[in-house]
């Protein structure tokens, strides 16, 4: 397995657990992962720094959505998307975010069906879905798709 996937999945696993248990993330870890991504790409020369920055764009778009919606998207979710994008590149993070959004929507639909209108005010931690989306992206890539 490639180094960037191991680092990204480990990072997301830690963030997903803290998102579920505490409804917050450990910000210093995310802040440390961004320079680590740059160093990783410089050492292995598998991605240009421009591609790394381009991979962070979806996290920036999520941050803009968060600002426009008054925090409907958590800042930790935005940071996690930026870190994953910087590690894996734009195409992989878009795929992972697509899978994660589908999984989150399906879970929210089941929650609405089960609880009815009371579920409207419930919040779903997003990072476990991003972790699952990233795992699906990895499986798809190694399957040859």
Secondary-structure map:
Layout: H1 3-22, H2 27-44, H3 49-55, H4 57-68, H5 75-88, H6 90-115, H7 127-143
Quickly describe the structure.
The chain contains seven helices and no strands. The chain has 145 residues and is mostly helical.
Overview features:
145 residues, mainly alpha
Description:
The chain is mostly helical and 145 residues long. The chain is 79% helix and 0% strand. It contains 7 helices and no strands. Helix 1 runs antiparallel to helix 7 and helix 5 (75-88) runs antiparallel to helix 6. The model has no long low-confidence stretch (mean pLDDT 87).
Uncertain spans, ≥5 residues at pLDDT below 50? none
Arithmetic mean pLDDT:
87
Following the backbone from N to C, one meets helices and strands in this order, namely HHHHHHH
What portion of residues is helical? over 70%
